[in-house]
Amino acid sequence: MSPGSYVRTLFVFIFLPCFFSGFAPTLLKKMLVSLLTCVPLILFLMHSTCVLSGAKHPDRNDSDLSPTIQKLMKGYNRYLRPNFNEGPIEIGMSLDIASIDAISEINMDYTATIFLRQRWTDERLLFEGNKSLSLDGRLVELLWVPDTFIVDSKKSFLHDITVENRLIRIFSNGTVLYALRITATIACNMDLTKYPMDRQVCTLQLESWGYNLQDVVFYWTRGNDSVKGLDTLQLAQYSVESYYTSVSQAVYETGFYPKLVLHFALRRNILYFILETYVPSTLLVALSWVSFWISQSSVPARTCIGVTTVLTMTTLMMGARTSLPNANCFIKAIDVYLGICFSFIFGALLEYAIAHFCTVQHFTLQDVQRELRKDLEESNGTLPVISTSFAHPSKVVKRNYTQKDCVRVVTPGEVGSKAELGLGNGQFFVALKGKVQRILAFFHVENPHNIDRYSRMFFPLAFMLINVFYWIYYLFL
Fold it and tell me: Partner of 82 at 20 to 30 A CA spacing, among 174, 261, 295, 337?
């Protein structure tokens, strides 16, 4: 506060009440005592407020600036862009990617810290000499700056420790360098069909918010070399495969706006998923094949192996989906492989159920044969048996078997044929039963142990063949 302000304040609070001293002497004395007590405090607060206000708004006091800056700021209007009414101003940009902190498949975005540098020429800032002026970042409020923004940004902030991370540098030819340090979470549309062998292409788009192509033109200062830091970037699950820059324009209802786009491709590192998912699931499939070498009479052992591998595979499938979106309209590569492994494990369990059923049926036929031998012995060596042929079911041959003859195995189909053709009574249900038994006899397995023997070769070979097609398709196609 200036000395004149102090004098005016004292006049208002002290001398002016004395003018009215003749009207109320007693009241005036009380007022003077109160004012003399409060005036110093009021003046101190007013002085402190002025000092803080001047520190907070440096542009309100031009005497604090250097003579060169004062000369440049004289008549400068920061609300008007350079080359106003003389054509668009060209703004060159470059980027330094400091880090990519996180890439989220669930939210389909990535978080990056970037150094954004913008250059333009403002003829109003020409000065003599060959040196440049590096200004405090807080003086950006004195200059016109572009209204650049990140298009697909979900949230972003400007670093402010220990001060706002902004740089302003003015060159003698009027060129202005404006740099910012920004951390932004940017959307990236991902195609997870080949996850975890996928390749994602993300973008970083820069546009002007209010100035259209008639006012502002964006360009990369050095083409693809305008972007630094991606070559040396180290990520947890990805590696930067390639990147390039492009210049485009955004079309909105309000007009055409300049746009700069950085495209970069990320290749996911599959080694983690091989150790975490593919190897355990493959070992579980191999473990389910152990039951093929266990005797079919060991029902608890084979059942325990089958049920345990199925439940373990189910848990592994649930764990593999925790880091992925819950609702999506595409099947991922890891889902296909886990589904194949689950099918083979379940098939091994189902194979034992079929083998055990055939074994029980085989033992039942052996019991029938023993009963036939017993009847043959009890009939003094002769027993008429009707034999039929599947090729010629109309031919019926009667033979008298003796003890010396070989006892032929009578299949359920033949028993049905005998019941159907024995007396020729034409009973419908007896005939239908015989046909059903002939159909079942077609699927009869003479030796149930062959099921395990064939499964030992079929399951590994089929699994290896499917793996070959799987990896060729998802890695090279």
Answer: 261
Q: Are strands 227-228 and 89-104 parallel, antiparallel or unpaired?
A: parallel
Cα Rg of the chain, angstroms = 46
Which sign does the torsion angle of CA 290, 291, 296, 298 carry? positive
Q: Give Cβ neighbours of residue 320 (< 8 Å, ≥ 6 apart).
A: 277, 334, 335, 338
DSSP 3: H
- Name the 3-class secondary structure at 366: helix
Report the C-alpha gap between 337 and 469 in whole angstroms: 11
- Phi first, then psi: give them for residue 172, nearest 5 degrees: -65, -25
Do β-strands 227-228 and 133-135 pair in parallel, antiparallel, or remain unpaired?
unpaired
The whole-angstrom separation of Cα 392 and Cα 412 is 17
Q: Considering Cα of 122, then 125, then 130, then 135, what sign does the dihedral take?
A: negative
User: What are the pLDDT digits (tens) for 252-298?
Assistant: 999 999 999 999 999 999 999 999 999 999 999 999 999 999 988 88
388, 438 contact by CB (below 8 A): no
Nearest to 473 by CA among 347, 331, 326, 348: 331
Q: Report yes or no: 372 and 401 within 8 Å, Cβ to Cβ.
A: no
Would you say the pTM of this structure is higher than 0.85?
no
What CA–CA distances, in Å, run from 209 to 115, 147, 183, 250? 19, 6, 19, 10
Show the tokens assigned to 127. Answer: 């000065």
Question: Beta strands 175-187 and 148-150: pairing type?
Answer: unpaired
**Segment 25-56, tens digit of pLDDT:** 555 555 554 555 555 555 555 554 444 344 34
